[in-house]
């Protein structure tokens, strides 16, 4: 079953929303607070691990992911990270929120800390790797099966053949980094697909490129 | 049961209070961070990059060869800008950017993404029927134009160098900067003269 965040190519969403030139960066003040809490807060767990944050987003239930707005989704994901790290209790946010609205409920004590024992080897996500890239520009490659989450291989390119358009700088691998199990840096390729190879002969003709990690690919 | 939780705005305030009490976030630092993205990191940065590329052929060549370095020349770098690749839209090729898995976007040059970019309908559909999606967004492309959709699935960030509109030959770099829109730098619009 595709992960909740893996939306590429899926049906049933209705029309897109045309751009609104008057749109503000944050519609409401809480959205800015949630943005800052997510970005600054996640760095207090075990380094600024954006992959862990994205993995937390992808594990939210449909209500928490879709129904509370974009920054509601961010708030819910960073709360999940704090709960899983033992920094706050699962009910701590709700209890405090009820007290803020005038109820009087007991707040749970802070649980036992269970932060991942993990530190990145450097800032950011780009890394040097030994050995030259397995594929070169122009090579035909097939995207493999979608691995168990976390992964950055979307369902809609899985099993399809494309052509390497660029060899990008090596990145740490989200699949292991997101769960604090190592950086395992890999070569990353921009792979170009023909829409008719992805969706069949009746598809709108266009090209699509996506960055794929070395272990997602096999020669084709 | 999540829909019976207290309202999200209240939960945001609750989490901020708890983390502040624990010394894990500082509301004053949060204020500055929010203000930065409300006022100084936004699409005006990208517009300056584009206008310079339109008026300085050597800069344009550097920008297309190494976007991150050329953008840094103008002082723009930071989170979500580790490796920026710039692609050019022309009369025959039209690039459009998406992040199907989340909302990856080149913050240093465009700021935070607008709602349409983060919307599930855009994320789902632009990789399946981009011509239809662009039409819904107000951009009608000739059938002869090749569309290239860029799905930002790693830390590579894409910036579109839009086509310079005809009739702007006499405009200064500053005037050109005022023409460039965020939507054109993502590829869902063209720059009008």
TrEMBL record, chain A:
<feature type="domain" description="Nitrile hydratase beta subunit-like N-terminal">
    <location>
        <begin position="1"/>
        <end position="109"/>
    </location>
</feature>
<dbReference type="InterPro" id="IPR042262">
    <property type="entry name" value="CN_hydtase_beta_C"/>
</dbReference>
<feature type="domain" description="Nitrile hydratase beta subunit">
    <location>
        <begin position="127"/>
        <end position="219"/>
    </location>
</feature>
<dbReference type="InterPro" id="IPR003168">
    <property type="entry name" value="Nitrile_hydratase_bsu"/>
</dbReference>
<feature type="region of interest" description="Disordered">
    <location>
        <begin position="99"/>
        <end position="131"/>
    </location>
</feature>
<dbReference type="InterPro" id="IPR049054">
    <property type="entry name" value="CN_hydtase_beta-like_N"/>
</dbReference>
<dbReference type="InterPro" id="IPR008990">
    <property type="entry name" value="Elect_transpt_acc-like_dom_sf"/>
</dbReference>
<dbReference type="InterPro" id="IPR024690">
    <property type="entry name" value="CN_hydtase_beta_dom_C"/>
</dbReference>
<comment type="function">
    <text>NHase catalyzes the hydration of various nitrile compounds to the corresponding amides.</text>
</comment>
<comment type="similarity">
    <text>Belongs to the nitrile hydratase subunit beta family.</text>
</comment>
<dbReference type="Pfam" id="PF21006">
    <property type="entry name" value="NHase_beta_N"/>
</dbReference>
<protein>
    <recommendedName>
        <fullName>Nitrile hydratase subunit beta</fullName>
        <ecNumber>4.2.1.84</ecNumber>
    </recommendedName>
</protein>
<keyword id="KW-0456">Lyase</keyword>
<dbReference type="Pfam" id="PF02211">
    <property type="entry name" value="NHase_beta_C"/>
</dbReference>
Automatic annotation (TrEMBL), chain B:
<dbReference type="InterPro" id="IPR036648">
    <property type="entry name" value="CN_Hdrase_a/SCN_Hdrase_g_sf"/>
</dbReference>
<dbReference type="InterPro" id="IPR018141">
    <property type="entry name" value="Nitrile_hydratase_asu"/>
</dbReference>
<keyword id="KW-0479">Metal-binding</keyword>
<dbReference type="InterPro" id="IPR023900">
    <property type="entry name" value="CN_Hdrtase_asu/SCN_Hdrlase_gsu"/>
</dbReference>
<comment type="similarity">
    <text>Belongs to the nitrile hydratase subunit alpha family.</text>
</comment>
<dbReference type="InterPro" id="IPR004232">
    <property type="entry name" value="CN_Hdrtase_a/SCN_Hdrlase_g"/>
</dbReference>
<keyword id="KW-0456">Lyase</keyword>
<dbReference type="Pfam" id="PF02979">
    <property type="entry name" value="NHase_alpha"/>
</dbReference>
<feature type="domain" description="Nitrile hydratase alpha/Thiocyanate hydrolase gamma">
    <location>
        <begin position="8"/>
        <end position="189"/>
    </location>
</feature>
<protein>
    <recommendedName>
        <fullName>nitrile hydratase</fullName>
        <ecNumber>4.2.1.84</ecNumber>
    </recommendedName>
</protein>
């Amino acid at each position: 079953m595709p992960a909740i965040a893996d939306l590429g190519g899926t049906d049933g969403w209705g029309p897109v929303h045309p751009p609104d030139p008057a749109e503000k960066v944050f519609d409401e003040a809480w959205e800015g607070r949630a943005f800052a809490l997510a970005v600054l807060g996640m760095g207090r767990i075990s380094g600024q691990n954006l992959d862990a944050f994205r993995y937390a987003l992808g594990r939210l239930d449909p209500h928490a992911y879709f129904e509370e707005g974009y920054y509601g989704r961010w708030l819910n994901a960073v709360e999940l990270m704090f709960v899983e790290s033992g920094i706050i209790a699962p009910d701590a946010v709700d209890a405090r929120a009820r007290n803020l609205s005038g109820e009087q409920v007991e707040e749970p004590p802070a649980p036992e800390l269970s932060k991942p024992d993990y530190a990145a080897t450097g800032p950011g996500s780009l890394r040097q790797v030994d050995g030259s890239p397995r594929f070169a520009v122009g090579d035909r490659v097939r995207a493999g099966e979608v691995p168990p989450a976390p992964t950055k291989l979307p369902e809609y390119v899985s099993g399809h053949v494309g052509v390497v358009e660029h060899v990008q700088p090596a990145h740490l691998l989200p699949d292991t980094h997101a769960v604090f199990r190592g950086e395992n840096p890999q070569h990353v390729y921009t792979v170009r697909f023909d829409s008719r190879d992805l969706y069949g002969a009746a598809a709108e003709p266009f090209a699509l490129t996506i960055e794929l990690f070395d272990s997602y690919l096999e020669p084709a | 049961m999540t829909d019976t939780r207290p309202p999200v705005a209240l939960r945001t305030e609750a989490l901020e209070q708890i983390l502040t009490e624990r010394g894990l976030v500082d509301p004053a630092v949060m204020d500055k961070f929010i203000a930065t993205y409300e006022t100084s990191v936004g699409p005006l940065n990208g517009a300056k990059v584009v206008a310079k590329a339109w008026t300085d052929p050597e800069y344009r060549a550097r920008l297309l060869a190494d976007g991150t370095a050329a953008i840094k020349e103008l002082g723009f770098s930071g989170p979500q800008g580790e490796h920026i690749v710039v692609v050019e839209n022309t009369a025959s090729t039209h690039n459009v950017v998406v992040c199907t898995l989340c909302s990856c976007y080149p913050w240093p040059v465009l700021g935070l993404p607008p709602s349409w970019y983060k919307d599930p309908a855009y994320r789902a559909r632009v990789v399946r029927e981009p011509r239809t999606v662009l039409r819904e967004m107000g951009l009608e492309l000739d059938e002869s134009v090749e569309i290239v959709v860029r799905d930002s699935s790693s830390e590579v960030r894409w910036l579109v160098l839009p086509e310079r509109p005809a009739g702007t030959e006499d405009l200064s770099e500053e005037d050109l900067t005022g023409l460039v829109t965020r939507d054109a730098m993502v590829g869902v619009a063209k720059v009008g003269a």
